[in-house]
Amino acid sequence: MPAFLTPSPLTRRTFLGAGLALATFPRWSEALAQVASNKEIKVALIGDTGHGDYGHGLEKPWSSFPGVRLVAVADQNPAGLAKAKARLGIPGYADYREMLATVLPDVLIIGPRHIHRHHEMAMAGIQQGVRAIYMEKPFCRNLQEADEIVAACKAKNVKLALAHRNRYHPDVERVKKHLAAGTIGTLKELSGTGKQDRRAGAEDLWVLGSHVLNLALCFTGKATRCEATVKQDGRPLAASDWKEGGEGIGLLAGNHIDAHFATESGVPIRFYSAAEPHRREPVFTLRLVGTKGVIQMRFDEFPLAYLETEKGLIPLPLLPGETPGPSDAELRKNIGDHYACARDLLHALRTHGRPLCNEEDGRDVVEMTFAIFAAQKARKPVALPLDRTLAYR
Hints:
This protein has helices at about 20-25, 25-35, 80-90, 95-105, 120-130, 145-155, 170-180, 200-205, 210-220, 330-335, 340-350, 360-380, and strands at about 40-45, 55, 70-75, 90-95, 105-110, 130-135, 160, 185-195, 225-230, 235, 245, 250, 255-265, 270-275, 285-290, 295-300, 305-310, 310-315, 380-385. It is an alpha/beta fold. It folds into two domains: about 40-160, Rossmann fold (3-Layer(aba) Sandwich), CATH 3.40.50; about 170-325 and about 360-385, Dihydrodipicolinate Reductase, domain 2 (2-Layer Sandwich). The strands form three sheets. Strands 8, 9, 10, 13, 14, 15, 16, 17, 18 and 19 form a ten-stranded mixed sheet that branches. Strand 15 (about 285-290) and strand 16 form a beta hairpin. Helix 2 packs across helix 11 (about 340-350), helix 4 (about 95-105) packs parallel to helix 5 and helix 6 (about 145-155) runs antiparallel to helix 12.
């Protein structure tokens, strides 16, 4: 079985609440118990009210773990900082660099959903000596920034995890088991879409497509080639179409994207987002199409994975010998509120391992995003890893 389809040690039983984890599951409970008995792990949070705020509640889980404490928050917006201090009951700083130098955190949370300062904040944390970073997605604005963060993390042995929450959902491992069991036959294609709302096209690709591409790579291995069509209002892109996009992404163009990736497994990935969709396909999903059926993964839903049947969707059934997993309420806490993500990062920090969704995974998605526009510009397929001179902006 290919490595990317091999179930990881993070099985569905690992995703129960923090209190239950200590008593029940040795892999994480031992690491967290060791954390508690050693030096306290200090966690600092960066938000940016009005520019992505505090992500989707990235700060929620940290102080619930033994030996881990959220100690400070930074926000350059005075009103936002006041609210965060009152909500969290911790000291606040207008300048995140002052916070880093003063509290010397072990873990840095980079919360803003706007990504224009992700690189700056990550590099500052690494230079100040943080041991781990938990960052809102998307990763960063371009491949230069991605390469620099990856290199800095490697040089300083910093653990970086991205908040692609669905990667930590136990249904991901269950889907891999169903693929191995032949539930949908031979896997032929993965097809994903964004929400195709007012952001349809390039912004949808960056903001929501990052989730889709990140999850797709779990089942295919790395992308090796890209061909793509990018249009604006039905016509090829023109220089005048490039405009400053939302969420700190930078220049964007195109409200119709149809991209096709070859992968190292031979199973292709397609991504589609258009202002006026021509494909009748559910939005914000990843469909795994096999010779005998289809598994549909619906982002941020509980359950995450379903079988498509003639009568509609049914939750992915239990395989022989498989027992029911966590309840929806447990999953909403552990996945939706980042408990599983935080626990995994703490485990990687303590055991010198790798976070489940790390900086190299983030760079892979940025590279695929750039490859779409590079292929459009070249009007022919481009190879990945992408030539770093093929920037589209």
